Amino acid sequence: MDVRILAVPYDSGRRGWRMGRGPERLLEAGLEGALRARGHRVESEWVEVEESGTEVATTFQLARSLAERVRSAAPSFPLVLSGGCLLASGVLGGVGPAGVLWMDAHGDLNTPETTRSGFLDGMALAVATGRCWTGIAGTIRGFLPVPDEFVVTAGARDLDPGERAVLAQAGIPCVDALRAREEGVEAAFGPAVAALAERVDRVYLHLDLDVLDPSEARPNAFVSPGGFTLEEVEAAVRYVGSRLRVVGATLSAFDPAADAEGRVPAAAARIAAAVLEGAAGGGAG
Fold this sequence. Notes:
It is a single chain. The protein is of the alpha/beta class. The chain has a single domain (about 1-280), classed as Ureohydrolase domain (Arginase, Chain A, 3-Layer(aba) Sandwich), CATH 3.40.800.10. The chain contains eleven helices and ten strands. The strands form two sheets. An eight-stranded parallel sheet has the order 4-1-5-10-9-6-7-8, sandwiched between helices. Strand 9 (about 200-210), helix 10 and strand 10 (about 245-250) form a beta-alpha-beta unit.
């Protein structure tokens, strides 16, 4: 498979800060070589902008640029390495209408009215589903808010009360890691993925690396117990690829400073390889 890695080294609108150092670390650790060893043809490029001085303006400027780069990468598969999660809307702008599998320890469904931290990336899925920042999100060429019924979340366990309410009211399914452990990945993901496959035939995979249980790896300071094992994440993305056409993926939120044991790059490489294996399957049709 032809793969275009798009590395976006920003966190909260700041280049090379905190999780913004993650994309470079993954590439330094040999991600390209690991994927080439599996037979993929891989090219990498950086997505950078001049910082505007404000987090919101810089982040959405990055999203606009990323949308164009994803679009121009076609027909190569876009694999995005991002410091933050909000750039998912840029990827969606580039790949066009698609369902979303959002694998993350957090809901990312806060809005400016509900957030207590003010953390923009905590609003990433809310932006993608049209709940907030709609004016500036509309400047991302090709981006359209994703309907709630086109979204599946997985691994979310560190949720604010408002996020739990949104998930319940919107009917967005959340696949629980404990269920995957007890019943198996296909049984846990099967109903939600089957319902999604009735509505869409294309899907974008968003993988915040803190979806992993901390016993597997500690990608950032926001990790919490109760996540998926590495093998479960690999199995999940392969399974989704067997049912739907995977049109793009993001690995996000890796802060090398949190990875004291140095386990994240190898885990990320395995997840990326599983994503591409699923994408190569092309869905069941």
